[in-house]
Amino acid sequence: MAVMRLGYAHVRVTDLAEAKDHYANTMGLYETLSEGNKVYYKAWDEWDHHSVVLEEGGVGLVKYGWKVQYSSDIDEIEKKAQTFGVTVERMSKGENPEIGDGIRFTTPSDHVFEIYHEATLIGTEVGTHNPDAFPRHLVGVGVPALDHSLITAEDPGMMDRFLSDVFGFYATERVQTSLDDDADIIATWMTNSIQIHQLAVLAGPQGKLHHFAFRLADWTEVGRAADLFSMDDVPIDIGPTRHGITRGQTVYFFDPSGNRNEVFSGGYLAYPDRPMHVWTPDALGKGVFYHARELNDAFTSVLT
Amino acid sequence: MPTVTIHPTGEVIYLEPGETVLSGLYKAGFAYTVGCRRGGCAICKVDCRSGQFRYDHPVADTVLTEDEHLDGTCLTCRAVPDTDITIELRGENVRLVNTFLHMINDKARQRAEANAAARLMAGTTPKEQ
Ligand code: FES
């Protein structure tokens, strides 16, 4: 395993004060650093210095950080990315606070990825010595961790190949134009672990963010999150509902700048030898919103 | 207080001071396609045919281009009218989804109009009162 997980999502926000209120008080993230126009957060069950970075000025994605297991993985990914035809630059320790040396490149989908191995260890909020099940004084939804993200790209098939070749990811589910071998990929859900997806790519404009998601334990927590969103006047996009694709339980909502967030729970365990689920466009409504079984146009066109 | 007229149906909606166009439409019982309701996704744009408005938040360059700041494009979820405005939706119509809200909004508008007429008769402007 080279890439272990989506380490951080770095997004732009139009108003830092409002964004801080959302991510700290509604989502329950812990602020670990505030520096200039940026604020860094971690969730309670994460141990590295940060998983969410907010930067004032605009909206949408700045970049993702991907944490690898061994420092040698960085060189390997660099070689594979170059072989794929991507220009890779070196990134040095401290370019991102509390993050070590690594590489940076722009993917064929025009998203910026950073690959790193070292991050300052803060530790989870319950510690490692006889830890309790959760921190007693969680704020708001109290999300335990960043989970995955969905981006758009003009050629999701190319991103599927890129993530396979460079990251060693495999697809757990795909939406294809048909069931034929030469069908085009409309969307792909990719991982390299038993996590059902770490990054999904949907056909759409280059370089855009559809959402980034936080993990929750079960339906009850997803329902409670939706309740809190109403209390805090957070615009809910969809849910609570289930996805046909991944089987996850979900609420989609927007941060105060209009970046889409998700809380996600459930889904099944992924394995590389598990037969991939394939969806066709006629079943896409059910695939995305299992209960309503109808796709709304805003779900695929509302992006930041 | 400003009103929003929807072209071409001619519906007139009364806004509270400082209220955004989108919030005014909602509070008058209307709906149309929106996304984030937070100025980030650009889907709520309509065309402003007359009147003045400003934005209650900084709007990202990726959401509104320089041209769109000048050509009457109105990001309804962040636009607060300074004067009465007339808007035209892009490719769709507003849907009345709550008739009770619509009734209440209409009464508020009639009251505001009656007050304005009374002030005119008395020869005063709101500022002089
Ligand atoms: S609804 Fe997203 S910008 Fe207005």
From TrEMBL, chain A:
Name the UniProt record assigns to this protein: Metapyrocatechase
Family, similarity comment: Belongs to the extradiol ring-cleavage dioxygenase family.
EC number: 1.13.11.2
Pfam families membership: Diox-like_N, Glyoxalase
Domain VOC stretches: 5-118, 145-266
Enzyme category, top tier: oxidoreductase
Cofactor: Fe(2+)
